[in-house]
Specification:
single chain; alpha/beta; 6 helices; 37% helix
């Protein structure tokens, strides 16, 4: 499919339904694999919930919080009854006890290693602090396992326009990828929404 046709497909794509499906606090609670899944991963407080809400044009489907480390489960949301968005717990918040951090890591890795229906991982990073050490660690962990990775820099509205490309180029340098592979995103202004949807649909299809 040509880029023009793909862009038109995104433009015509309508979200007819987006609903919470289930949560899992332990691996044994994961739902039966059925529809394709796109996972969203990132450090605590990078705007993961806001990004998912912006993608779905919903204000409160995914609960947001000013307290990093609040999400303690993996949450599934069913979109158009055709695929799932999977919200993974944020990682790397220092004030969360180490035993809880270890539990989250076990839960996240258990999910990533076991889901045959997982089609791609949206790796979310803060544009003001691109590619922190834990972001790089997760990126290489995913890359070593041949996951389809979609790197995103959020909160670009908090930067001036001339800082956007600088942030993207710095992130690309650290991750050793092309700047074109990185989506610049603003949940507030919906910047990058269509581009991110295009990459998500490519991964699902």
């Amino acid at each position: 499919m040509s880029t023009v046709n793909k862009n038109q497909e995104v433009a015509n794509f309508k979200i007819s339904s987006a609903e919470f499906f289930t949560s899992a606090f332990i691996v044994q609670q994961f739902p039966t694999e059925s529809l394709p899944e796109i996972a969203f991963a990132g450090r605590s407080n990078v705007g993961k919930s806001s990004l998912i809400n912006a993608l779905l044009l919903r204000k409160k489907l995914v609960k947001t919080s000013n307290t990093p480390g609040r999400t303690q489960s993996i949450n599934w949301f069913i979109i158009n009854k055709a695929f799932y968005f999977v919200d993974l717990p944020g990682y790397g918040f220092a004030k969360v006890p180490k035993e809880i951090q270890a539990k989250w890591r076990w839960l996240i890795e258990g999910y990533l290693q076991s889901r045959k229906t997982l089609k791609g991982v949206v790796l979310i990073m803060d544009a003001r602090h691109p590619a922190m050490p834990q972001d790089v660690q997760l990126y290489h962990w995913l890359a070593a396992r041949s996951f389809s990775i979609i790197p995103v820099l959020t909160k670009v509205d908090k930067l001036s326009r001339n800082q956007w490309e600088k942030a993207r180029e710095e992130c690309a340098r650290i991750l050793a990828i092309s700047p074109k592979d990185i989506v610049l995103f603003s949940a507030k202004e919906k910047t990058g929404r269509d581009e991110l949807w295009l990459k998500i649909m490519d991964a699902i299809i």
